[in-house]
Specification:
24% of the residues lie in helices and 24% in strands. A hairpin with a 2-residue loop joins β1 and β2.
Length: 208
Protein backbone atom coordinates (compact mmCIF):
# COMPACT_ATOMS: atom_id res chain seq x y z
CA UNK A 1 0.00 0.00 0.00
CA UNK A 2 2.79 2.38 0.91
CA UNK A 3 4.49 1.80 -2.43
CA UNK A 4 1.25 2.62 -4.25
CA UNK A 5 0.91 5.87 -2.35
CA UNK A 6 4.47 6.80 -3.35
CA UNK A 7 3.59 6.04 -6.94
CA UNK A 8 0.59 8.38 -6.88
CA UNK A 9 2.03 11.27 -4.91
CA UNK A 10 5.62 11.30 -6.15
CA UNK A 11 4.81 10.58 -9.76
CA UNK A 12 6.61 7.34 -10.40
CA UNK A 13 4.05 6.29 -13.03
CA UNK A 14 4.23 9.65 -14.82
CA UNK A 15 8.04 9.66 -14.66
CA UNK A 16 8.31 12.91 -12.70
CA UNK A 17 11.73 13.33 -11.14
CA UNK A 18 11.72 14.65 -7.58
CA UNK A 19 14.93 16.19 -6.28
CA UNK A 20 16.12 15.10 -2.85
CA UNK A 21 18.64 17.94 -2.42
CA UNK A 22 19.00 18.85 1.28
CA UNK A 23 17.85 22.36 2.21
CA UNK A 24 21.29 23.19 3.55
CA UNK A 25 22.75 22.86 0.05
CA UNK A 26 20.40 25.34 -1.55
CA UNK A 27 22.03 28.65 -2.44
CA UNK A 28 20.42 32.03 -3.01
CA UNK A 29 22.02 34.98 -4.79
CA UNK A 30 23.14 37.66 -2.36
CA UNK A 31 21.86 41.13 -3.03
CA UNK A 32 24.54 43.74 -2.58
CA UNK A 33 23.68 46.90 -0.68
CA UNK A 34 24.52 50.02 -2.63
CA UNK A 35 25.31 53.03 -0.44
CA UNK A 36 24.89 56.38 -2.08
CA UNK A 37 27.69 58.87 -1.62
CA UNK A 38 26.93 61.67 0.81
CA UNK A 39 26.27 65.02 -0.86
CA UNK A 40 28.17 66.79 1.91
CA UNK A 41 30.91 64.20 2.20
CA UNK A 42 31.99 64.39 -1.42
CA UNK A 43 32.57 68.16 -1.35
CA UNK A 44 36.24 69.22 -1.31
CA UNK A 45 37.52 71.19 1.68
CA UNK A 46 39.48 74.37 1.03
CA UNK A 47 42.56 74.87 3.20
CA UNK A 48 43.01 78.54 4.19
CA UNK A 49 46.34 80.14 3.37
CA UNK A 50 47.12 80.81 7.02
CA UNK A 51 46.58 77.18 8.05
CA UNK A 52 49.10 74.34 7.91
CA UNK A 53 47.96 70.73 7.97
CA UNK A 54 49.77 67.50 8.82
CA UNK A 55 48.24 64.21 7.70
CA UNK A 56 49.68 60.99 9.12
CA UNK A 57 47.71 57.81 8.49
CA UNK A 58 44.31 58.41 10.14
CA UNK A 59 45.30 61.49 12.15
CA UNK A 60 44.92 65.08 10.97
CA UNK A 61 46.58 68.05 12.67
CA UNK A 62 45.75 71.63 11.73
CA UNK A 63 47.46 74.79 12.95
CA UNK A 64 46.35 78.35 12.42
CA UNK A 65 46.62 81.81 13.96
CA UNK A 66 43.95 80.99 16.59
CA UNK A 67 45.26 77.62 17.74
CA UNK A 68 45.92 73.99 16.92
CA UNK A 69 43.52 71.03 16.63
CA UNK A 70 43.89 67.34 15.87
CA UNK A 71 41.54 64.44 15.17
CA UNK A 72 41.92 60.70 14.65
CA UNK A 73 39.55 59.34 12.01
CA UNK A 74 37.81 55.94 12.11
CA UNK A 75 38.73 53.20 9.67
CA UNK A 76 35.51 53.69 7.70
CA UNK A 77 36.79 56.95 6.19
CA UNK A 78 40.10 58.19 4.83
CA UNK A 79 41.62 61.59 4.08
CA UNK A 80 43.34 62.52 0.85
CA UNK A 81 45.13 65.74 -0.05
CA UNK A 82 44.55 66.73 -3.66
CA UNK A 83 46.98 68.37 -6.07
CA UNK A 84 45.07 71.65 -5.88
CA UNK A 85 45.65 71.78 -2.11
CA UNK A 86 42.15 70.80 -1.05
CA UNK A 87 41.29 67.91 1.26
CA UNK A 88 38.77 65.20 0.47
CA UNK A 89 37.15 62.84 2.94
CA UNK A 90 36.40 59.52 1.26
CA UNK A 91 34.77 56.26 2.27
CA UNK A 92 37.18 53.40 2.88
CA UNK A 93 34.42 50.77 2.67
CA UNK A 94 31.00 50.53 1.06
CA UNK A 95 28.85 50.13 4.17
CA UNK A 96 25.98 52.08 5.64
CA UNK A 97 28.11 53.09 8.61
CA UNK A 98 30.81 54.44 6.30
CA UNK A 99 28.17 56.36 4.38
CA UNK A 100 26.91 57.95 7.61
CA UNK A 101 30.41 58.88 8.76
CA UNK A 102 31.32 60.29 5.35
CA UNK A 103 29.31 63.48 5.69
CA UNK A 104 29.86 63.78 9.45
CA UNK A 105 33.66 63.73 9.30
CA UNK A 106 33.72 66.03 6.29
CA UNK A 107 31.83 68.59 8.41
CA UNK A 108 34.11 68.04 11.42
CA UNK A 109 37.19 68.51 9.23
CA UNK A 110 35.86 71.74 7.77
CA UNK A 111 35.04 73.00 11.28
CA UNK A 112 38.64 72.40 12.33
CA UNK A 113 40.05 74.47 9.47
CA UNK A 114 37.57 77.31 9.93
CA UNK A 115 38.09 77.23 13.69
CA UNK A 116 41.87 77.71 13.71
CA UNK A 117 41.72 80.36 10.95
CA UNK A 118 38.59 82.44 11.66
CA UNK A 119 37.02 81.02 14.81
CA UNK A 120 33.39 80.54 15.78
CA UNK A 121 31.05 82.29 18.13
CA UNK A 122 27.86 81.28 19.88
CA UNK A 123 25.38 83.88 21.09
CA UNK A 124 23.25 83.45 24.18
CA UNK A 125 20.45 85.66 25.39
CA UNK A 126 19.59 86.14 29.05
CA UNK A 127 16.18 87.46 30.02
CA UNK A 128 16.06 89.04 33.45
CA UNK A 129 17.17 92.07 35.43
CA UNK A 130 20.83 91.15 35.67
CA UNK A 131 23.11 89.61 33.11
CA UNK A 132 26.09 88.29 34.98
CA UNK A 133 24.42 84.92 35.55
CA UNK A 134 22.08 86.25 38.21
CA UNK A 135 19.45 83.68 37.36
CA UNK A 136 17.11 83.99 40.31
CA UNK A 137 19.12 81.91 42.77
CA UNK A 138 20.22 83.07 46.22
CA UNK A 139 23.72 83.67 44.85
CA UNK A 140 25.14 84.51 41.41
CA UNK A 141 26.34 81.58 39.30
CA UNK A 142 30.07 81.73 38.60
CA UNK A 143 31.57 79.72 35.79
CA UNK A 144 35.20 79.49 34.85
CA UNK A 145 35.82 80.36 31.20
CA UNK A 146 38.03 77.82 29.38
CA UNK A 147 41.42 79.10 28.29
CA UNK A 148 40.68 78.63 24.58
CA UNK A 149 37.41 80.64 24.68
CA UNK A 150 36.58 84.34 24.89
CA UNK A 151 33.40 85.77 26.38
CA UNK A 152 32.05 89.24 25.57
CA UNK A 153 28.97 90.99 26.95
CA UNK A 154 26.70 93.15 24.79
CA UNK A 155 23.79 95.40 25.78
CA UNK A 156 23.61 93.82 29.23
CA UNK A 157 21.44 91.05 27.80
CA UNK A 158 23.72 89.04 25.52
CA UNK A 159 26.78 86.86 26.00
CA UNK A 160 29.01 86.14 23.01
CA UNK A 161 31.29 83.12 23.25
CA UNK A 162 34.02 82.86 20.63
CA UNK A 163 36.97 80.55 19.95
CA UNK A 164 38.50 78.18 17.42
CA UNK A 165 36.97 74.89 18.61
CA UNK A 166 33.28 74.72 17.72
CA UNK A 167 32.67 71.77 20.03
CA UNK A 168 34.08 73.60 23.08
CA UNK A 169 31.98 76.68 22.26
CA UNK A 170 28.82 74.61 22.03
CA UNK A 171 29.56 72.72 25.26
CA UNK A 172 30.27 75.90 27.22
CA UNK A 173 27.15 77.61 25.85
CA UNK A 174 25.06 74.57 26.74
CA UNK A 175 26.52 74.48 30.28
CA UNK A 176 25.43 78.11 30.80
CA UNK A 177 21.96 77.46 29.43
CA UNK A 178 21.63 74.36 31.61
CA UNK A 179 21.61 76.50 34.77
CA UNK A 180 18.21 77.93 33.87
CA UNK A 181 16.60 76.82 30.59
CA UNK A 182 13.65 78.91 29.35
CA UNK A 183 10.52 78.11 31.34
CA UNK A 184 7.44 77.18 29.28
CA UNK A 185 5.00 79.88 30.43
CA UNK A 186 6.80 83.25 30.19
CA UNK A 187 9.98 82.13 28.43
CA UNK A 188 12.27 83.57 31.10
CA UNK A 189 15.71 82.02 31.39
CA UNK A 190 18.85 81.53 29.33
CA UNK A 191 18.35 80.73 25.70
CA UNK A 192 20.17 80.87 22.38
CA UNK A 193 19.62 84.10 20.49
CA UNK A 194 17.93 82.30 17.58
CA UNK A 195 16.05 79.80 19.77
CA UNK A 196 12.26 79.69 19.55
CA UNK A 197 10.56 78.78 22.81
CA UNK A 198 7.04 77.41 22.56
CA UNK A 199 5.04 78.84 25.44
CA UNK A 200 2.27 76.98 27.21
CA UNK A 201 -1.07 78.57 28.03
CA UNK A 202 -1.45 79.25 31.74
CA UNK A 203 -4.49 78.67 33.95
CA UNK A 204 -5.72 82.22 33.40
CA UNK A 205 -5.68 81.70 29.67
CA UNK A 206 -7.73 78.51 29.94
CA UNK A 207 -10.57 80.28 31.80
CA UNK A 208 -11.11 82.73 28.94
Amino acid sequence: VFSNLRSVFWGESSRICVSHTPVSRLSFPRRSIECKESRIGKLPIQVPENVTITLESQELKVRGPLGELSRVYPSEVKLERQEDGTIRVKKATETRRANQMHGLYRTLTDNMLVGVSKGFEKRLQVEGNDLVLSLGFSHPVRMKIPDNLKVKVEENTRIIISGYDKCDIGLFAASIRRWRPPEPYKGKGVRYANEVVRLKEGKAGKKK
